[in-house]
Amino acid sequence: MNDNMLETLDLGELRYKVKFTHEPRDIRERCGLRLADVARACGCATSTISHWETAKHLPSRRLAVRYIELLRDLERRSGGQ
Fold first, then answer.
1. What crossing angle do the helices spanning 23-30 and 35-42 adopt, rounded to 10°?
2. C-alpha–C-alpha distance, residues 26 and 6, integer Å
3. b/e string for 19-57 if b means 16 or more Cβ within 10 A?
4. Per-residue pLDDT tens for 40-73?
5. Number of other residues whose CB lies within 10 A of the CB of residue 4
């Protein structure tokens, strides 16, 4: 995901990215983070992140903002590879 997309990403687009591209999980894994690391950063349960990454559930707007901000930061740190 590039910064421009993350800045304008809405819940529908997040669901699409998770369900069809797995980008959020790929970003997390590329950065060497566990589900528990992301859950702690977002303030939710590990199972919640797992459900998001498998498109079983969508985050609330509040948690989606945290999740997207975290993904944006991870992308910047990893150089967007």
1. 110
2. 15
3. eeeebbbebbeebebebeebbebbebeeebbebbbeeee
4. 999 999 999 999 888 888 888 888 888 888 988 9
5. 8
Average pLDDT, the chain: 81
Query: Domain locations in the chain?
Result: 3-78
- For 3-78, give the CATH class: mainly alpha
How much is the pTM?
A: 0.73
Tell me the three state secondary structure of residue 40: helix
CA dist list (Å): 73 to 11, 16, 53, 56: 18, 20, 17, 24
